[in-house]
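Notebook p. 47: complex prediction with manganese (II) ion.
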Amino acid sequence: MTLKKYKERRVFQKTKEPKDERPETYQRIFVIQKHQASSLHYDFRISVAGVLKSWAVPKGPSLNPAIKRLAIMTEDHPLAYADFEGVIPEGEYGAGTVIVWDKGQFENLKEEKDLEKGIEDGHFTVALHGEKLKGGYALTRINKEKKQWLLVKMNDQYANRDLDILEEKSESVLSGKTLEKLKKSHPSGSD
Ligand code: MN
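Predicted complex, structure tokens below:
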């Protein structure tokens, strides 16, 4: 039911984005998709209660605990979306290019409180086990009406104040392609 908005916005004859959920193996996975739409952003998604809860992070995640990144909550996506990379055709919702920038398992750092409740209450922390992002991240809502949250690296052994991970590792963890390369390999946007 929470995928209603996702489905309404898409014409599945025109886009290769997934239509359906794919449960079980998608328990507790997170994905960060780098998405060149009308503006570049990173979509941070975590599987919660059978869907991917999603935030668009305009400046992307950071390894530096001193940096707070704005994250706008967007509509839930189906679990199968975690493997989507490709070109969303012109004129379609989110038109542009998507790569899977990072992906892996995650843990809820406050096991006594489930993530659905944490999201509802506007604060939760997760440990990411990605290829690029590791360790704790906190998400805290700052404006409910505008769906604005902050994504902040927690101070742990994986924190790094010097490394710009977005610059250093810009390629997909699925295909090894950058956004530009992927776009070039799909010149028509229809493949
Ligand atoms: Mn997006």
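Notes: The mean pLDDT is 91. Residues 35, 37, 41, 43, 56, 94 surround manganese (II) ion (CB under 6 Å).
Next step: compare against the earlier run before touching the bench.
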